[in-house]
Amino acid sequence: MTVRPIRYLGDPVLRKPARKISRVDDSIRRLIEDMTESMYAAHGVGIAAPQVGVPLRLVVIGMPDEEPFALINPEVIRRSGERRVDEGCLSVPGYRGTVTRSVQVTVKALDANGKEVRVKAEDNLLAQALEHETDHVNGTLYVDHLDARTDLVKLEPAQPAPEGDD
Ligand code: NI
Asked: What CATH number has the domain bearing residue 66?
């Protein structure tokens, strides 16, 4: 497993809609392992393949104290409600912002074995991560969802993030 460098805001790979994965093979599973390592090395709770420079529709989510899992070709198939949440991103270090996210989120995807799965979450960090990471494979960053510039806050260098970044 290899920790891959994170790409930052301004890198075009973060802005291009990523390519669909047509076959879930060992090379994809190796990429999942590298992304998982890279996510934990950066203290994140989620990571998308474009964030390590790979333009594929693949994300890894690792909620605190839970097993990490991969979602291949993730699609939000249902969302409802609105809530305001504090958010950060490994690709936008040193900042956090307040954005509007859904309360209930359902994502359809393939797992690391190529089997179709649905992941549902409601009013929690997982719901937020599902939308945040699926956005990434569509070339969208959380800063695009800010209502106002004042909703983005620069962190003091010594101040740790209140929770993991996506
Ligand atoms: Ni992110």
From this structure: 3.90.45.10
Give the chain's end-to-end CA distance (angstroms, integer): 20
Domain count along the chain: 1
Pairing of strands 95-101, 83-87: antiparallel
Domain encompassing residue 64: 12-154
CB distance 48 to 34 below 8 Å: no
Active site residue 133: yes
Distance between Cα 91 and ligand 1 center (Å): 6
Q: Ligand 1 centroid to 45 CA: how many Å?
A: 9
> Domain for residue 162, yes or no?
no
For residue 41, report the distance from its CA to the centre of ligand 1, in Å. 14
From the number of C-beta atoms within 10 Å of its C-beta (0-12, 13-18, 19+), residue 58 rates as buried
Number of C-alpha atoms within 13 angstroms, CB side, residue 15?
7
Residue 26 covered by a domain: yes
Question: Has residue 106 been placed in a domain?
Answer: yes
Residue whose token pair is 């993991």: 164
Give per-residue pLDDT as tens, 40-74.
Answer: 999 999 999 999 999 999 999 999 999 999 999 99
Whole-model pTM: value is 0.93
